[in-house]
Amino acid sequence: MNEFDDLFTENGEIGSDDRPFDVEAWAEKKKQERADAYELLDEGTLATVNNEEQFKAYLRAQANLDRCSVSNAILISYQYPEATKVADFDTWKSRGAYIKRGEDAITMLEQGKEYTRDDGSIGHNVNVKKVFDISQTSMRSENEPPAFHDERSAIKALLSASPCAVIIDNEKTANVLARYSPDSNTIYIRQGLCGGDIFRSLSQEIAVARFAERDMSRKDCAFQAYCTSYILTERYGFEDVNYSFGNASERFAGMEPKEIRNDLNVIRNMANDISKDMMRQREAQNKANVSRDNGAR
Description:
Elements: H1 23-49, H2 52-64, H3 70-79, E1 86-87, H4 89-94, E2 106-116, E3 122-133, H5 151-160, E4 165-168, E5 178-181, E6 186-189, H6 195-212, H7 218-235, H8 248-251, H9 257-296
Helix pairs in contact: 1-3, 1-9, 2-3, 2-7, 5-6, 5-9, 6-7, 7-9
């Protein structure tokens, strides 16, 4: 007897599987999936901080997938460094796209339902989710409109995110493009810079100034501010010029994967906080433009 014969009825039709659902087997399978994902996450975390190109891939993922947690940005960039836009199979299908033959799914983690711990606090279940990057599908890469239509508007929005005054001073920036001074609580910037140099140097010093509000010295926050600048530079379409992360392995030497992710989360949050202020300025400017246009009619 063929081992598949039990799938058919006496009339040769496909029958229903009336075997009872094995809850314990299902739960064990999900538990193993989570264990495998967490193992992959720890492996990816260490690989990310010990390889400069992998670290840049992680930061690019954080720039392109700004809503991603640190853990998922690590998982995605570790498995598929070129990822720019990810979704699960059903989402791509609903958009009329199919997954290309031979493409492997990307493992990530998804927050599940809430539950109450024994101590009364609220926790969340974590589920494993399989996604694919847009480049793994039949859909063409989407050229989304930039957040800002030109460099000037992007820099203006960045200036709005500064917690202190920004002043042109060639004397105080003789050896640098821009510099935050905690003594005067001012960012000084050199005159005559191109748009890219302004954005790159200013984003770093704004991060330094914002970390200073948390009583962190430049020495304490220099690496985080530098990474923040790279994320913002990538996110808003400025050219990646001379960013180097060869010291990342030294920075995170001896740290456990969870400690590393906590440290990276500080960078992620700073980049996103600055972005939020930039977007608020953009929305305010758009509203002002609409009001001005309406008033001119």
